[in-house]
Amino acid sequence: MKRKIIVTADGSKTIQIEDWNEQYHSIHGAVQEAYHVFIKSGFWQVEEKEHQVRILEMGFGTGLNALITMHEAEKRDVSVEYVGIERYPVSLDEAFQLEYPKMLKWSGSEAMYRKMHEVSWENTHQLTPNFSLEKCQKDFFEVNQSSLFNLVYFDAFGARVQPELWTAALFEKMFRALKPNGILVTYSAKGSVRRALQEVGFVVERLPGPPGKREMLRATKKE
Ligand SMILES: C[S@@+](CC[C@H](N)C(=O)[O-])C[C@H]1O[C@@H](n2cnc3c(N)ncnc32)[C@H](O)[C@@H]1O
Description:
- This protein is an alpha/beta fold.
- The protein has helices at about 30-45, 65-75, 90-95, 100-105, 110-120, 170-175, 190-200, and strands at about 5, 15, 20-25, 50-60, 80-85, 125-130, 130-135, 150-155, 180-185, 205-210, 215-220.
- The termini are far apart.
């Protein structure tokens, strides 16, 4: 499918799939959305209680969520094991056109971002003292872990274009993959998504969304 790079409202870039009119991130601000949904509403909640955080990302994509999580892990001195699932990896060239390291302006972020994209798939790589990354090239439905993760970043394309990914069938796998009290965060606030999460046993909260979106969801696997 044809992809192009576009600039979102906060000045950060994202990839657009033209045929679907769907983006990898919110058009209201890619970096803003990533911080709000995944870091503030997800990572910060978990890292308060855990010394070691295991994260499963559904949709590694451009690596933006992984990059900002790596930065948080170092800033807060929390050990993170990050597993990113992605069936259709973006190329290094495409990733670099997005200029995330340039925009985020942390020292060393460009080298780290490059490393994230260059390291081999299906192996675990210790990229910084506090952050390891394992990229798995497979379909979301092939995730079959049990009680392993503290946090799921559920970052699939929207239900409008991939409705099969926002169903109880996949959420059941997420529920199983999480440890007791583990949480799943997603940018979606659709009623059908909330109900499918509840159907598999999650307790679901509606939280304020990032700029441009009224709400988002956080689902907890209560003990
Ligand atoms: C919204 S984007 C993810 C954005 C990403 N988290 C980031 O920070 O750039 C959704 C991702 O899911 C991937 N994807 C779509 N269908 C998939 C499937 N069935 N299994 C695995 N990955 C899939 C896409 O290739 C895309 O990279």
